[in-house]
Records
---
Amino acid sequence: MADDLSPARAARERRSRLLLLTPAMIILLLAASGPLLIVLIYSFLTPGDYGGVVWKFSWDAWFSVVAERDFFTDELSFADAHLSIFWRSVKLSLMTTVAALIFGFPTAYFIATRPKRSRDFWMLLIMIPFWTNLLIRTFAIMELIRAEGTVNMLLLWTGIIDEPIQMLFTEFSIMLGMVYVYLPLMILPIYASMERLDFSLVEAAYDLYATRWRVLRRVIFPLVRPGVIAGSILVFIPCLGAYVTPRVLGGGKNLMLGNLIELQFGQGRNWPLGAALSLSLLAIVMVALIFYVRAVGRDGEKAHG
Amino acid sequence: MIEIEGVTKIYGEGKSAFHALDDVSVTIRENEFFTLLGPSGCGKTTLLRTIAGFVDPTRGAIRLAGKSLLESPPHKRPVNTVFQSYALFPHMTVAQNIAFGLEMQGKPRVEVKETVARMLELVRMTPMADRQTGQISGGQQQRVALARALAPRPEVLLLDEPLSALDFKLRKDMQLELKRLQAETGITFIFVTHDQEEALTMSDRIAVMNAGRIRQIGSPREIYDQPAERFVADFIGDTNFVEIELLETEGETAGIRLPSGRETRARSGAEARPGKATLAVRPEHARLVPPEEALMAGTLAEIVYFGTDTHYHVALDSGARFVIRQQNAPHHRQTHATGDRVGVSFAPGVGQVLRD
């Protein structure tokens, strides 16, 4: 059929294909590549006195991402403040991912093993909070765990504790908030691969003397691994750049990367540093993504090659 | 030896209760090729899954060598299953699939390796050991599934319609292969199928099931030649049913009167009572004869040529139809034509009087 096409018609086909591609290309150019380029350029400029940038090339921003110069003695040292925030972001994101996996995996398994009719209902329950405004959900968590909040009141009332536990404005509260917010992103991909899982394989393993734990480890887990990896990436990456949750639940003491970047563009009036920090965050995300692609690629090779 | 005693499985409650298994009792001998045969939904797979441990019976007992199985979960029963869909682990190679059961049993590495090699040889899959299960054909997957289930040397092997996904030629080969494997391993096989021919050619004994109950148990010959009731006679092979009158019984035979008024003898169960009854006659057990020598007379309605044999459809004077199957001889000349007056005859003791 293809070689029946006249040259004019082939050209028309090519044009219409390009036309279809145009909106996506425009959005990518305007919303992704363009701003990214601006950020990259800004990170090599000098900060203006009242925010903004002065068009003078400088390495300073990149330099101060990891190091600082003592104001009086001119001595060089690691930028402890920045590094500890980097570390906290990665640590909290990893912990959140693990916690979301611990809660999300059994949930996905539970839903996937329900009768077909009730699965949609369970998935709806998972999705409803996801459709609620992020800020509202975060404040709800705050209401629950603040000193006079529901949890503390309940614990005091039942006599388990004598005085309120400080949960709000800790790393724990940030993690709790992020697990709550991103849990559906973990459950969805795991559920998707779990739903495709042939449960006669589970029976076969059980029939072949595998205990429940070994069935999970040797058969179920390897087969839903792509879902687990996808879910982990979907949780880990937005956690790294989380802004609202650490702002509301961390109380300004426990900054994460998102807050640090915002600070540079606001009160800090150091746009180049903000830009350099943003690109550093992007670099971490890239490393995580490369990790993901390689992990999934290995599965693909196994299945096909 | 597997003893199944009064096993009942009820799904649902009250009015909507469904008896998947209804008081099933059977004893399966050691090293027997035992087949559960029946239409889909008759409960044969449920019975198999009950033995494997995937279904808990509502009532009844299952014992293996005198020890109750029901308290053990599937992974503690010395029973392995070959699943209808094979259920091979897609993330493992052929050899890893076969090794799985042995590894789970905690067998030493050397022994696992030896057994896997032996199993691969047994099912003639040695060159495929390192293939992924997605890269081998349906028949090969079938053999891997067999090897995987046989490797841990179960006392009983359960086979859930394992040949139904294969094409005709492969099916024939695998039937022989299964018989060979059973003979070589000496393991009891419990085989589920809805294919009567498969059941007849492979089994030592067959249990015919319908609506959750076992209707008849016997050797293939017994089931075919002496069906106990209409369902069994109808389900297995082709059968002519003739409404007759039972006159008297004597041991395993009975005197009967055909609709034509002629009397003859037929086999019957010991519990048969005089009165109206149904006689089953296999098409190949009857002959086409001149009307004056016949037990029943009629007109030849149809002649169907089948290569190996010819089917004669006779419209009896009583109004019923009767089919006769005669083997074709070389140089055979067709002597009958549709519309001819013909007679149907069969030797005394060939027909079987059915239980209601």
Note: The domain at 2-225 of chain B is CATH 3.40.50.300 (Rossmann fold).
---
Amino acid sequence: MALSGLQIYKLLPGSSKNPEVKKHANCKECGFPTCLAFAMKLGQKQAKLSQCPHVEEESKSRLEASAAPPIRLITLSADGHKATAGNETVIFRHEKTFYHQASLFVKVKDNQADAADVAAAVGAYTVDYVGMDLTLDGIAIEDAGGDFAATVKAVKEASSFPIILLTDDPVKAEAGLKAAAGTTPLLSAATPDNWEAMAKLAKQYKAPLTVRAADGDLNALVELAEKVKGAGVEDIVLDPGVRDYSSSLAVFTQLRRLALKKNERKVGYPIIAFAGDDPMLAGQHIAKYGGFVVLDSFSPGTAYPLLVLRANIFTDPQKPIQVQPGIYEINKPQPDAPMMITTNFSITYFSVANELESSGLPGWLLVADAEGMSVLTAWAAGKLDAERIAKGVNTFGIADKLSHRRLILPGHVAVLMGELEEELPDWEIKVGPREAVDLPNYLKTQWG
Amino acid sequence: MPAIQIPTQKWSGKVREVTLGATAADGGTRAKTVTVGGATTLPFLHFDGETPHAPVVAIEIQDRYPEDWSPILLEVWGDAAKDPASWAKAAEEKGADLIYLKFALNDDLSGDYARKIVRQVLDATGLPLIVFGPGQVEQDNDILVSVAEEGEGERLVLGVCEEKNYRTIVAAALAHGHLVDARTAMDVNLGKQLNILISDMGLPLDRIVMDPTTGALGYGMEYGYSVMERLRLAALQGDGMTQLPMLVTPGEETWRAKEARTDEGVPESWGDWTERAINWEVLTTSTLLESGADIVVLRHPESLKRVKGMINALMSH
């Protein structure tokens, strides 16, 4: 966690108890009039510690540690595809945002005949959600007594996704690492029994390393992480060894709190979580602190909702999802179908589109560019006015699609009617309901 | 090496306990009651505080056969959906904790009609009952006042009670011993404000459930998720007007979404229809449970089963 200016000041020569250091208090060699002024600038990241020639070694290491992210960023890669986890700064998404969306890995076993086919299907899977192409992130290969290296090789050839090597056997691990050459896989896992050999391999092959404890024992987990760190492995991933809903939620929450609220560096790493075949457990891991999430199988009917869930949870609450402004067709509208105006805030758009779709009534939607705001908010902020709507009508070529000249304005902005009639003299402006839920009834009774 | 201290969080606030339904001993006819709330922690963090009551699952039934529902739902409920009484029985058999009866929008809705349907459902099931109007202020007022009279003393939940009509609904709840579902758009302050208005009319806070509205997965769920997380944090920090259990309707939201409703003209990447639809409903629901939902209203019995399993797993510790 970043230190405040005052906390930094306590580490500078001006606050030192060592007379040899203290004598340099406020020496101005850093370019600032006092140690306190320098500390404030450091806190704001407007100065560099190296500007102070007299800072003590111990202070230096504490200050440098505080500048590092509280949860280390770990990146797995292959062929241009990356899976990253870490660098998170908050417990709840509304506090700021979650930065690195949980990476979804699908597991195959080394004794599974169709491992390469599964890997190929996972790698090829893509689905569109509000104009974004969502994909999974990687393949985890489990040592189940088969030919581990051959499976790694086959998977690597079948997809260009990053790989997680799930084996506790250092011999198989090394064979897997060799087969994965040219990529950065995650080696999973070091345990109290094999950590020396695993740490050596991780260092030699420059692979991040998972440390695994049993049953959520955080002290054992930290002890192991410190050991592999002592052996020279910096990129560490945590597996606290819990697999069920209740313990996963508890232990992952504790780890996140320790890293962010207690500034506990020893657990400042992302978490690998295993969801088995349960989409709801995978969903919990996505929302509650899993960094790399491993699923036991792949199926589009499960992958699609999980990818959408992830997109939702990792959306920056300050930057709502927008839909592309333009003309949208609902239920195959003909030229005589009604044309309704709404905004490009995704929730507004979906509310309107959903009501129409489920009513079965055909219609056209003119989605105005309101910079991602809802109708009332956009109107209040001056982002939805007669001019903008008229611009949409004229640029999207609406007239060509319709056999009539009538537009339905959202009830919340009925006040725009007069101005809009001036902007669009050939059109009749009708005022629709305020709420999307009332649209079907309005169309049934007022549109004929 | 010093041992890692588990970072626990103790809160000063507590979610209010609210009991739905009344047995004969309390002036009703329910075989059992359902109590929600009472938590002194964020959802399921048993190392932080107590969660005396598990979240519960209601199954939505409608007053008449919902022809516009997804064929997946119509098929699974079969003939039971043609009659509210048999539908309520079927839902109880599938393991629902509560019955949520929704009156569909219809021109010939009347107080007398609603009274008749509610009586049939009350007679058919021993579970506590939540009764929602179609969500149109005038019709809601008309039928819910009659429903409140018919269900005298049953501690029904009447909904929706929103800013536009809360006076009528709250007066009916006060007069006949019921609860209300206080619904606002997804917003912390609007939610608080409505609770204040309702309690100012004299309805005790333990007869209000808060309904912050939700969107389905992919359709704004994350807004509801964060609003609920913030409401629950405010409750635990001691803000009395947010210390109410939360009710959400992920079933209705999910089955309006194209992903669940239909398989016509959808991309191949959406996968198997039933698998996708059930996942849509359970993932919307499970994510809302993780952010503080106390009562979730579902539509599909398979979703009910899976969500109950998830709740049981999260309650164990």
Note: The CA atoms of residues 170 and 197 of chain A lie 6 Å apart.
